[in-house]
Design goal:
The chain is mainly beta. About 10% of the residues lie in helices and about 35% in strands. The protein is built from three helices and ten strands; from the N terminus they run βββββαβββββαα. The strands form two sheets. A five-stranded mixed beta barrel has the order 1-2-3-5-4. A five-stranded mixed barrel has the order 6-7-8-10-9. The protein is elongated, with a radius of gyration of 23 Å.
Length: about 200
């Protein structure tokens, strides 16, 4: 699967050259005479944001670890060096699983979501992120209506991404679903609502 969201296997590789802005590597953990050649795209070279060419990060002959992304059209293997760049960060991220409950402190509130310092993350990192739809079951226009900087929160993990250095979490996942509660509430005549009855519009008789 190409561009997998979950962490892929880690491979030992050696830089053998560059193809445009991509890095070509040989896989050192392959067996036999036919050594496989993989490719690291520029945006997967490093967590650093301002890289024009991978030669700023890698030199030919360097050996390192890289995470499998997948095979495009079933052919050449693509890899991510950034996913293995910080071993402390990778260890933290791979130790987190979807559905796990985590705690942290809100560090920033923006139009597009909320950044959270998760407990146990490496120093200098801010790995938690909450998207606007994952803040609350209630309608909100801005994340500041749900949380504020410095607030302690508990949330459920949606996804941990080693390539992005980020854990996507949800406050809403730990809140009661008001729609489920409505559909399961007893009818006034003693019968049980069906999902169709709970959502059907009221029709005047």
């Amino acid at each position: 699967m190409f561009n997998r969201p979950e962490p892929g296997p880690v491979r030992r590789v050696k830089v053998i050259g560059f193809d445009g802005t991509d890095t070509l590597v040989s896989l050192l953990d392959t067996e036999g005479d036919d050594v496989e050649v993989g490719r690291i795209p520029r945006h997967e070279a490093s967590m650093r944001r301002c890289i024009e060419h991978p030669s700023e990060v890698f030199e030919v002959g360097r050996e390192m670890e890289a995470e499998e992304i997948g095979r495009r059209r079933g052919e050449q293997l693509w890899l991510s060096a950034r996913a293995c760049e910080n071993q402390d960060l990778r260890g933290f991220l791979t130790g987190i699983r979807p559905g796990q409950v985590v705690s942290g402190t809100v560090s920033g509130v923006h139009d597009f979501g909320v950044f959270v310092h998760l407990d146990g993350e490496p120093d200098g990192r801010c790995t938690g992120f909450i998207r606007l739809p994952d803040l609350s079951w209630s309608w909100i226009d801005h994340p500041s209506q749900a949380v504020e900087p410095g607030q302690r929160i508990t949330a459920e993990v949606i996804m941990s991404e080693t390539r992005e250095g980020q854990v996507t979490i949800s406050l809403k996942a730990l809140q009661d679903n008001p729609f489920t509660r409505t559909s399961e509430s007893p009818r006034s005549d003693g019968g049980a609502n069906t999902p169709e009855q709970a959502t059907a519009p009221y029709m005047a008789g």
